[in-house]
Amino acid sequence: MAAELFDCDAFGGLLAGFTLRKSCDVVGKSTLRIATPFMYPDGSYIDLFLEQSVQLHKGDGPLFSGYLLSDLGETAAYLHSRKVIIKDSYRLIVKSICKRLNVEFENRQLQIKLDPDVIDQTADAMMRLGQACVRVSDLAYLKRQSSRSEFAGKVGASIRQMGLQPERGKFLPGDNGRDVYFDFLVKGPAKTSLLKTVSAATKDGAHAQFNEVLSRWVDLQSYRSKGTHKLLTVIQDKKWAYREDDLKRIGRFSDEIIAFPSDKERLRKAITAA
Questions:
Q1: Domain 143-272, what fold?
Q2: Contact, 154 vs 143, CB < 8 A?
Q3: What are phi and psi for residue 155, nearest 5 degrees?
Q4: For 103-121, what is the mean pLDDT?
Q5: Where in the chain is the domain with CATH 3.40.1350.10?
Q6: 79 in helix, strand or coil?
């Protein structure tokens, strides 16, 4: 932005063409479906639905005729497809998100009730509801991290049962000038093994993790070349969740790809080889 344009009026002009509506169509008899610029983690756009002339309770008050802006349960459906069910601790997180944004979560849908006399505040309601959809859908990432951490914990426990002492959450200086994180460092009789784990419920999730592992191993190739370290990729036993091209790519930069727990013995041999 040029210096002479750097004031609030000029900035407002830059936003003049911004809209919360990418497209809009009518579904049913009295419902608008509004495609918004907000996106779910998979890149799909979030739709909001505005129903008119519906009978609503507002708090503990009586029924009134107003408008209902909601996601029609699509955010909960998205999470369900990622094996995240909004209950227990997840429900508490959703409740906290909704409270901060003044949004309700009822009948598995995120929603805002609008009085007829404040329908002109729909833009503000769409902004709050869209933000709620984004933040709630991000629970899919929390699920992924929790599952991966649990799997890494099982790998570490198995290594300890072998009589070894894995060091968790270690860093080494990488070839490109940055510290590189990996899950475990295990000192064996001849070489030190560096381990990265992969555990995902979907091919998309596994692909993202493999890309992360690949970047780490590329940055640590000098350790492998010196013959002082092994780079071991330990994947959960879910063959259906892994793409063949990901496995081939990782195989070029990793000494071994080991399925766990089915190849537990292979893991032991790789770490303890003389």
A1: Trna Endonuclease; Chain: A, domain 1 (3.40.1350)
A2: no
A3: -65, -45
A4: 87
A5: 143-272
A6: helix
